[in-house]
UniProtKB/TrEMBL annotation:
Its cofactor is Mg(2+). It comes from Paenibacillus donghaensis. Pfam families: PTS_IIA. The modification Phosphohistidine is found at residue 73. PANTHER family: PTS SYSTEM N,N'-DIACETYLCHITOBIOSE-SPECIFIC EIIA COMPONENT. The active site is at 73 (tele-phosphohistidine intermediate). Keywords: Magnesium, Metal-binding, Phosphotransferase system, Sugar transport, Transferase, Transport. The keyword Nuclease does not apply. This is PTS lactose/cellobiose transporter subunit IIA. One of its GO terms (molecular function) is transferase activity.
Length: 103
């Protein structure tokens, strides 16, 4: 369980970092780079979801998962990275719209 939790933390953290890097690229007007970074971010999120699914499937098979601070922390990382991605996607679209209007 600890290994799965660490995978969740790692992949979620990477997804969040990539999304914020994408935002910086979009702010600088580099929309192609921003799009690539967001794609990478989504790939990391999918990997984090895979780790989470391992826990869910295990529990659905009757294997109770002990709730630990590490597991709660891992879930928190996942939810924060997903929220960051959603908000950053919207902010990037605003930057692109602003750039289109000024051209």
């Amino acid at each position: 369980m600890e290994q799965v939790a660490m995978e969740l933390i790692s992949k979620s953290g990477e997804a969040r970092s990539l999304a914020f890097q994408a935002l910086q690229e979009a702010k600088a007007g580099r929309t192609d780079e921003a799009a690539l970074l967001m794609k990478e971010s989504l790939i990391c999120s999918k990997q984090a979801h895979k780790a989470q699914s391992k826990l869910l499937f295990s529990e659905s098979e009757g294997n109770k998962t002990e709730i630990t601070v590490l597991l709660i922390h891992a879930q928190d990382h996942l939810m924060n990275s997903l929220l960051a991605q959603e908000l950053i996607k919207e902010i990037i679209e605003l930057h692109e719209s602003k750039a289109d209007k000024s051209n």
